[in-house]
Structures are given as structure tokens and as C-alpha cells.
Design goal:
Length: 536
Amino acid sequence: MMVLEGKSVFGGIAIGPIGLFEKGEDQVKRYSVEDTEKEKRRFEEAKDTAKAQLAGLYEKALKEVGEANAMIFDVHQMMLDDLDYVESIVNMIETQKINAEFAVASTGDNFSQMFAAMDDAYMKERAADVRDISNRVIRILQGKVAGGIAGDEPVILVAEDLAPSETVQLDKSLVLSFVTKHGSTNSHTAILARTMNIPALIGVDYPSDVEGKMAVVDGFEGKIYVEPDEKTLEHYKNLQAEEENKKKLLQELKGKETVTTDGRKVNLYANIGGVGDVADVLVNDAGGIGLFRSEFLYLGKDTFPTEEEQFKAYKTVAENMAGRKVIIRTLDIGADKKADYFNLGEEENPAMGYRAIRICLQEPEVFKTQLRAIYRASHYGSISIMFPMVISVKEVHRIKEIVKEVKSELEQHGIPYGPVELGIMIETPAAVMISDLLAKEVDFFSIGTNDLTQYTLAIDRQNPKLDDFYDSHHEAILRMIRMVVENGHKENCWVGICGELGADTTLTKAFVEMGIDELSVTPSMVLKVREAVRNI
Ligand code: PEP
Ligand code: MG
């Protein structure tokens, strides 16, 4: 048995085989083949496997996100049978006597460039689809399965590091736990692990030969036992069963109010990263969605999500929440959340750089596309919007002007939209200090304690060396929260917390005493926070 230590990002026990995360950016190598018939057969078989995978994904998406969103997997199956595409690959294998992977990669590149150059928005979008289907076939030829996990069995996923764009693409049903060598407790990858409600460790220096070995992850103690002896395994199986029992007990709080013993109610909402998380919100009985990190719709893609794509996602979430509040945070890209097509370039201090609302105000068309999608979706549920990383009243004025333009454009076209509350995130010390002025401008504040802590303590939340200094209970942060609540309430502006601190049950009582109106937490923490409020 080997015991490795790291730092816990989320508690819990996982038992299962270790799987190594495969980075998706492997170069496809070109090599010569003698037997071109065999190579063509390899391609045909991989194509059939890809179609079978896509059919499976279609069924899964149909259940989880509805037919309109599932259609893409149908389209991908058809594209794989496109005669020109298939002929090009087969011809390359025959005439150049090269391996199937390389023929698929070259054809994929050629076709996607061809589509990208077309003067038609619909055809342009197909460029990303061709790349997507080609990558799928290549992964199958290389013996890898989409999602960075080789195989269909759930694994303890071990990786050097995981970018948010890689994490969102993982097939959640195949991940029992995350274990990474690098990464910090407050990174978005850590937040995603919490959303997935699975034990996660960072800073684990694992040897290269752990793949396939049986292991136990102890997310409470920050340990991983590789090839555990019988006694250890037995101990953790019992602990896992106890954990399950505790979770069952919490289930009794479903349907109950989030209210203190003396009758003070708190709105308890959940944070999500995409449509797929809504089921967890409902299962955990959250009263609404307090933070929809919309930028995840932009990650792991080759081009901007279209207005239609976004509209469908927001509408699905709003409809599934059936009238409960859904707060969509506008695009918060930049810093650790990167998408190549934004061409953000390298920055010396990305966390303090070109990100979030700064990008949206510089790129009004990108911003307006998102706002149009949100406003259109607001007709189908109760949607509010909040804006990240605000530092001035001037920014809020500019945001409101753009919102006004979007609304009047929709009106001109007779497109309906519902009443939408506007709020801002309080994530910078600047916003805290002028919260009295900002409160006059908006309907609500949502305190993003992750970034607020980073900017107040001058600690890069991505830097694992600083994890021990990142004190989210720092008196400065608690005073700031109190100040924001007081300033907000003077102007009838309700105040919530949507950063990770909102789920810290050792502070729930303090937050309630400060007068916090709302707490928005990762879905798996909803019932624990409800329990904490009910015990006050
Ligand atoms: C925050 O900063 O607290 C927050 C909720 O936003 P994010 O973690 O996505 O930056
Ligand atoms: Mg933030």
C-alpha cells in the first residue's frame, strides 16, 4: 500500500481504480503503412464506433437537456457519413499510404478551413463540428475515449493539472474523484469538483505507474491510498457507508424552509456551471439559482456560442426551475478561464487583467449577443442578470445603456421578455468601498468572496503556494461583507453571497446576523447550509 498526501478541495470518500487524464492536445503523428486495406478498415471501424458513441450521447442529451440541444449529436452522425469527407480520408490513405489518424486529421483541418471561409453563418459554424467529429475518430483510433478518460468504468481521475475547459468536458458519470498534482484550492477546477460533489485533492505528487491501480481517496484527510491493504479498505468502506447515511439524514430537510428558530428566512440558492447541473439543484431542493457561471458555455469550444445556442441553454434552465429565480452572471472569461478564439493574448497579471465585464464593455457585440439571449429566455421563467468584476458607477451606467439598447431592439422586433432584475457582483475592494453609490443603481448585490478575498488580501487564488495565506475568514473580508449589507439595505438593494464562503457553515450564523438575504452555494451543500440556518 502506498499513501500519498495532498490538500483536500472537497470531502468524501471514493473507492475505485485510478485513471490518468489524457490531455486532448496530442499531436497526430504521420507514418507510412504497407497494408492500406487494413488502414481503411481501421478507419471504417473507428467511424462506426464514433457513430455509436454519438447515438449514445444523443439519447443522454435528449433526457438531460431536451431535443433541441441533443440535435447536434444527430448532425455529427450524419457528417461522419458525408461522402466527400469519407472519400477524402480513404483517398489519402490509398494514394499517400499513410496512417488513418493522419488522414482524418488532415481532412478534418481542410474541411474545417473550407467551412470557416464560407460567407454564411450556418456553414461557418460547421467548421467546429468537422473538427469535433474528426477529433472523436482520432481519439478512437488512438485508443482514447472522449472526455479525457480511457474506458467506460468510473475512475479516480489523476492528472497533472486540469483547466476549467477540460473539466467541463469530462463525462461526470465516469469520475469518482479528482486528484491533481498542481492547482489551488480556490481555482475554478476546484469549484467544479465541488459542484460535482465528489472528493477532490490537489498537490498530490503521484508516481507515473499508478494507472489502473485500485485506490481510496480520503477527501477529509487529504490522502490517497494506492493498493490499500484489506484493513484500510474495510475501514473506508464503512466510512463511505456512514457518509451515505449522513446524506440520507439531510434528505429530511428537503421541502423544509430555510429559516432560523426565531423566524428569519434566508433565500438559499445554488451555483451552477451549465444546464447539466440543474438536476442537482432540484434534487438538493435549492430555492433558485444564485449564480449561473455562463462563461462555461464559452469554454471547451472553438468558436463563440451563438445567440440561439445560449438562448436555448438559458431557456432550458429557466423552464426547469419552473418560476424559481435564476441569476445569470454574464460572461466572466479571462484569468484562469480561457478560450483560444477570444485571442486574449498573454498577460503578466491575468487575474488583474483583461477579464469579465472589461471584455464585455470593449466587445459590445459579444456582450449584446449574450444579453439578447438572456432577455429572450426571460420570457420563460424568472431570470435576473448580474455583472462580474465591477469597479465603478460609470461601468454600471454603461452596462445599463447597453441593456437598454438590447431591450429596445427586442421590442422593435416584437420579441417578448420578462421583468429582469439587474445586479452586480461585489468582487473588488473598490466595489465594496462605493457600495453606497452602487446600491442606488441596481436591484441586488451578490458578493463574490473568491475574488474579493483574492483582491483584498493580494493573493492570487491560482497560486497553490499561497493557499495557506488565503484566509477567507480574514477580518477584512468579514467587515467588507457587513459594510456591503448595510449599504445595500439603505437603498433597498438585497444582498447575497455566491462565493465559496457562502457554504462555510461555521460562518452561517455570522452572515445571518449581518443581515444577508441570500446564500448561493454549490448544490451538494444546500441541505447542509439549510441545517445550519435552522439551528440558529
Ligand atoms: C467569486 O469570485 O466569488 C465568484 C463567485 O465568481 P468566480 O468564482 O466564478 O470568479
Ligand atoms: Mg469571481
